[in-house]
Write a structure and sequence with these properties.
Blueprint (H helix, E strand, L loop, with lengths): L5 H9 L3 H6 L1 H4 L2 H11 L5 E5 L5 H6 L5 E6 L2 H14 L4 E5 L12 E7 L8 H11 E12 L5 H14 L9 H10 L3 E12 L1 H7 L4 H13 L2 H6 L8 E11 L3
Parallel strand pairs: 1-2, 1-4, 2-3, 4-5
Antiparallel strand pairs: 5-7, 6-7
């Protein structure tokens, strides 16, 4: 019998797909990655935590500007892929560490930068994870969170969360910018800026990346087919199910 904790769901979804995430164009490139690299470049020699590193693309982009990068993830298979790719690229300042976002095995104030991309929507307890991120940052340190965001309107939000969990049972929630602002304030951060972007997603690659079962792919196609006009317009739903998501990069500071 399969275990049914959220951590088990995350590992079932991502461990077999570790190499696919390394090669995924959606994850390996983008204006958000360039923005993240620019932030690292502005903090030369920093110690950086890549929180929920996945295929390691944040780590690979910031390592040339950092003193050290720790790629941190729940999936050991993901970490093994990241370590092998770091060695291939000659990134000797990149280390790996396994664990949950909610329980970081690091000392208080250990990092200059905490960065997380396409991870937060999988966190079981985002408030606790954000408090941990703040704890391990030095006073005055910077945290960067990049992810899909909810449009914040009830109908659009319900539709977005539904298709996300149909595709990926380890999905918890895409938070709106207002929810992010509240959660970060509650965790003790001060928001410095929000950069909103739109990301086109090709349906076939989107479901293949998660190995979504055929029955759920059919359910997703049905959902897209019956979506109200306001949903179809906002997400720019195409005939093949491809659509456009709302993304944001949120930069926050730990006071000090």
């Amino acid at each position: 019998m399969l275990n049914h904790t959220h951590d088990d769901a995350v590992q079932r979804q991502f461990s077999p797909q570790a190499r696919a995430y390394l090669a995924s164009a959606v994850h390996a490139q983008g204006e958000d990655l360039r923005q993240i690299a620019d932030i690292a470049r502005a903090h030369p020699g920093a110690r950086v935590l890549d929180l929920g590193c996945g295929g390691g693309h944040v780590s690979f982009h910031v390592a040339p500007h950092a003193g050290q990068v720790v790629a941190y993830d729940l999936s050991q298979q993901m970490l093994d892929v990241v370590a092998a790719e770091a060695a291939r690229r000659g990134l000797s300042n990149l280390a790996i560490c396994r664990g949950k976002a909610e329980t970081l095995p690091f000392a208080d104030g250990e990092f200059d930068l905490v960065m997380s991309r396409y991870s937060t929507h999988h966190w079981e307890d985002p408030g606790r994870a954000l408090r941990e991120a703040r704890r391990v940052l030095k006073p005055g340190g910077t945290a960067v969170f990049a992810d899909v965001v909810s449009p914040g309107e009830a109908l659009l939000d319900t539709w977005l969360q539904t298709i996300e969990v149909l595709r990926d049972p380890s999905h918890v929630r895409d938070y709106s910018v207002s929810e992010w602002t509240r959660m970060l304030a509650e965790a003790g951060f001060v928001v410095q800026g929000v950069t909103a972007r739109r990301l086109p997603l090709e349906f076939g690659a989107w479901v293949q990346r998660m190995r979504t079962p055929d029955a759920l792919v059919a359910a997703l196609r049905h959902m897209f087919g019956i979506a109200p006009d306001v949903v179809r317009a906002h997400f720019d739903v195409q005939g093949d199910g491809s659509f456009t998501s709302d993304n944001a990069v949120i930069v926050a500071k730990k006071p000090g």
